[in-house]
Amino acid sequence: MSVTNRLVFDPTDSDSVAASSSIGSYTRAGDDGALIGSQTANSENWLNTTSILYQSDGTTPVDNANPLSVTLDSTTVSVGFAAFNTIENIATPVSTTAIAIATVQAGRQELWLANEGNKSLYWGKTGVTAANGFPLHPGMQHQARIGDAAGAQVIGGSGASAEDLRTMQLAA
Question: Which of 36, 76, 142, 161 is an S-S bond match for 28, by CB 3.0 to 4.6 Å?
Answer without folding.
Answer: 36
